[in-house]
Amino acid sequence: MAQSYRFVDHNARREASEQSDIDIFHGTVPMIRYIIRRLLFAIPTLIAISFIVFALLDLAPNDPTGQLPLTIPPEVRAQIRESLGLGQPFHVRYLKWMEQFFINEPLNVVEQAFGVEIGDSSERLRVRSWATRSPVVDLIVERMPQTLWVVGLSYIVGILIAIPIGIISAYRQYSWFDQVGTFVSMVGFSVPTFFTGLLAIIIFSVMLQWLPSIYDTTHRVTDLASFWAHLKQLAMPVMVLALFNAAQLSRFMRSAMLDNLNLDYVRTARAKGMRERAVLLVHVLRNSMIPVVTLIALGIPTIFGGAIITEQIFRVNGLGQLLIIAIQGADIPLVQTLTFMFAVLIVLFNLVADVLYGILDPRIRYE
């Protein structure tokens, strides 16, 4: 019986491995430099945004004593305004707010996260709500889980729905699936969430009585039954927001896929005998995801603001409802902090989108 021998060039394999490590290193270092450069550029951007947000809300004609009874004497009102720091000049109040938000609050977060004490925390000034006198960051952290459950889960569900629909609609252009997907997308994007939310409550809560109409923030998951109850109260707000998000993303996904399906590299891949599924999912999908990634990354901060109406409809005790209460009560520190947090998210996810560009498209360099 003839034997065949295979000779392995270990030196060549070692050199190929070393070259691969060098390529990875040379690709990672510019990306790290780019991220650092963008973060350094984001600092003056955020400072400028913080000044604009603080100035606009501080100069707004809102009086924190306006909700107090009329029987309170004017001198008492003046003392209350003085205790809130409103008697100081504008630049002093802005610098104090900057110190509290960028220095004191991060120190408090570090202390709570790692159980350490940095300096005298009792003497550390914090951004406090005018209405409750509680630290603003503590109020936001308390409401954050409810918003993440509803808004975050709805965005993930919307992406999981939109991408397959966009791919199939583009591949089977003008088919019945494409026609139905186009109609549903146009309806989902055109109809506001307050209408779809009320419609969902009428159908699934009033008529069918399948789902609760109000989100119970105090509900705790302890067993399978409580977990099922939690899923039921999540179903309507999540699907209302997911429909709105998926409608926009699916149209962008379809358009991006159609732009790439007729290019030369696709015809070349097919001519080489590559399977259609590999052509579609490996080549076309990767290039088509580049513009969609931008929409997904930049859409994350906006959904927090867009979920305000949905949270009001389903009584979700999240950040949206907290912002509405702060605006109605002229709680300027709380409105300033929430608005600036949304601005930070926009700047952060702009950077995330740029980094994902380089991962999806090797032609992009960070030099």
SSE ordering: HHHHHHHHHHH
Strand content: under 5%
- Name of the CATH superfamily: MetI-like
Task: Give the averaged pLDDT, no decimals.
Answer: 77
Please tell me the total number of domains.
Answer: 1
Largest sheet: none
Short description:
The protein is an all-alpha fold and 367 residues long.
Write structural notes for this entry.
Helix content is 74%, strand content 0%. With 367 residues, it is mostly helical. The N and C termini lie far apart (58 Å). Residues 1-10 and 18-25 have low confidence and may be disordered.
List keywords for this structure.
11 helices, 367 residues, 0% strand, MetI-like fold, mainly alpha
Secondary structure: elements and pairs:
Blueprint: H1 10-58, H2 74-83, H3 90-114, H4 136-171, H5 176-190, H6 193-207, H7 224-261, H8 264-271, H9 276-313, H10 319-328, H11 332-360
Helix pairs in contact: 1-11, 4-5, 4-7, 4-9, 5-7, 6-7, 7-9, 8-9, 9-10, 9-11, 10-11
